[in-house]
Amino acid sequence: MHELRTGLALFLLLNILAGMVRVVRGPTLTDRFIVAQLFGTTGVGVLVLLAANEGGAPLRDVALIFALLAPVTVVAFVRFAVGSVAEDARAREEEPRR
């Protein structure tokens, strides 16, 4: 069973590496944010899988902390995205009309 959990954790890590392509090539900020959420969720999954092994209680604690911090990242992104949209609107208003 140890090998199965380790194999699943490795598969999830490969999933994160595939997501890096979207971070680099993502056409919009929202695409990049969704991949960042994928990283967080997958990271929690990997830590929980590894915590199921002998002596993995500290990993479980770290996974819980990551899971609790996920909503904070959502709020930070929304504030950043709304702020950048407002700045773009202000910049368009300040441009001279032709």
Brief account:
The chain is mostly helical and 98 residues long. 87% of the residues lie in helices and 0% in strands. It has 3 helices and no strands.
Describe the structure.
With 98 residues, this protein is mainly alpha-helical. It has one domain. Helix 2 runs antiparallel to helix 3. It is elongated. It holds the Pfam family MrpF_PhaF. Its main location: membrane. This is Multisubunit sodium/proton antiporter, MrpF subunit. One of its GO terms (molecular function) is sodium:proton antiporter activity.
Summarize the biggest pleated sheet.
none
Q: Report the radius of gyration as a whole number of Å.
A: 19 Å
Helix/strand structural class: mainly alpha
Point out poorly predicted stretches: none
Strand content: under 5%
- Number of β-strand runs: 0
Q: How far is the first residue's CA from the last residue's CA?
A: 69 Å
Topology as a string of helices (H) and strands (E): HHH
How would you sum up the global shape?
A: elongated
Report the total helices: 3
Average pLDDT level? 82
Considering the chains and any ligands shown, give keywords for the structure.
98 residues; mainly alpha; 87% helix; sodium:proton antiporter activity; membrane; MrpF/PhaF-like
